[in-house]
Amino acid sequence: MESFDFSFNNKYVRMWFIWVLPILILSVILFLLLPVNYQWIPMYLPVPVVIIFFCWYQLDKYKNRN
């Protein structure tokens, strides 16, 4: 098992902080501010972003391996 460098020198950590973390923060803020009828929206907001990030991560790993 290879080690994982959790610093901003790592490209994947930088991309996670650029794309996923702001969406998570936005989701929490919206969850707190929206009325109860609309609180389902911020629950599903991070799902496509995390899926896209994971797909990009897998494709990038595959591309770098070859």
Describe the structure.
The chain crosses the membrane at residues 12-34, 40-59. Keywords: Membrane, Transmembrane, Transmembrane helix. The protein is mostly helical. The protein has one domain. Helices cover 73% and strands 0% of the residues. It has helices at 11-33, 40-44, 46-65. Helix 1 (11-33) runs antiparallel to helix 3. The longest helix has 23 residues, at 11-33. The two termini are 19 Å apart. The mean pLDDT is 90.
What attributes characterize this protein structure?
single chain, 66 residues, mainly alpha, 3 helices, 73% helix, membrane, transmembrane, transmembrane helix
Structure in a nutshell:
With 66 residues, the chain is an all-alpha fold. The chain has one domain. It has 3 helices and no strands.
Mean pLDDT: 90
Intertermini distance: 19 Å
Report Rg: 15 Å
Strand content: under 5%
* Total domain modules: 1
Order of helices and strands: HHH
Total beta-strand segments: 0
Gross morphology is: elongated
Transmembrane segments: 12-34, 40-59
Keywords: Membrane, Transmembrane, Transmembrane helix
